[in-house]
Amino acid sequence: MKKIYIASCVTICLLILAFLLVGCGSQNNNVSDNLSDARYGVFDAQNEQLSTTFIYGERENPYKPDGVSNSRVNFGIISVVFPQKQTENEFEFTLKSGDKTFTGKIEKSPFTEEYLADIGSQITTNEPIELTLQLPTGETKLTLEKRSEDWEIDFEKALKIGENALKDEISEMSKNGSIEYYLKIISNNKTNFGTYFWAFTAISENGEKHTVIFSPTNETILVKN
Question: How far apart are CA 120 and CA 73, in angstroms?
C-alpha cells in the first residue's frame, strides 16, 4: 500500500510538472499575455507655436526590453514639439478631458527634441481634449482631436497583422526562452505631423529583436527587420 501511495504521489508530481512546462511553452507564443507596451489611441493638435500628441495605453513596470513581460500599468503621454529651440527645460501643463483635469510639468527629453509628460492614466473618450501650456511667451491652449478612432486598422487588428508578419521569427525565438511584445503608435511630429504608423516588435530573452511597421490604413508591411 505504501509503495502504491508513493507511486501515486510521483505520478501526480510529474503531471503537475508537465502541466507547468506546457504552460511556460505556450506563454512564449501568447502575444496578448506578453505585451509589454500596448498603445491604443492618439489625439493631436498643432498651431504656429507647437505640435502636440497624446498617446494612451499600458506598459510593463519596470519597463525593460529583456524578453520578459512584467505586469502593466496605465499611461498617457503628452508630447510637445516646438519648431524653434526652447531655452526652458520644462513647462507647466493642464490637460482636461470631460470632468477630469490633470496637471504637472512637461519636461525636455534627454534624447530627442520632444517635451514629455506621463499623466499615468488612459483617456479613451472620442471627444476632444484640451491642453494648456504655460510658456515664456504666455499661456497657449490647444484642442486635441482623436485621430485613431477612424483608422481602418485598430489596435486589435494591428496586433494580428504584426503577429502574422513575424510568425516565423516568433516560432524560432520561442525555442530559446520567453518573448515580450510591443505594439506602438509611432510618428515624427517635427517633420511629418499627423502621419502615424503601427510598429510591432518581438524581443527574446537572448536579445534577438524583430520589428514590422505598417500604416493604420493598409495591411502592407512597409518595414521588416
Answer: 8
The DSSP 8-state label assigned to residue 29 in this structure reads H
| CA distance linking residue 212 with residue 204, whole number of Å | 15
* CA distances, 197 to each of 42, 184, 218 (Å): 11, 8, 10
Residues with Cβ within 8 Å of 22's Cβ and at least 6 positions away in sequence, in order, are: none
Residues 120-173: tens digit of each pLDDT: 999 999 999 999 999 998 999 999 999 999 999 999 999 999 999 999 999 999
| Adjacent-strand bridge partners of 54 | 43, 78
Give 65's DSSP letter. Answer: -
Q: Which residues pair with 81 in a beta bridge?
A: 51
Q: Which of 70, 130, 55 is nearest to 98 (CA)?
A: 130
40 within 8 A of 122, measured Cβ to Cβ: yes
* Cα 117 to Cα 79: distance, rounded to the nearest angstrom: 7
Between CA 40 and CA 90 the distance in angstroms is: 27
CA 76 from centroid of its chain's CA atoms: 10
Task: Answer yes or no: are the C-beta atoms of 87 and 136 closer than 8 Å.
Answer: yes
Please, which pLDDT band fits residue 188 given cuts at 50, 70 and 90?
confident
Here the cell at position 40 is 491604443
- Residues 202/219, Cβ–Cβ less than 8 Å: no
pLDDT digits (tens, 9 = 90+) for 43-101: 999 999 999 999 999 999 999 999 999 999 999 999 999 998 899 999 999 999 999 99
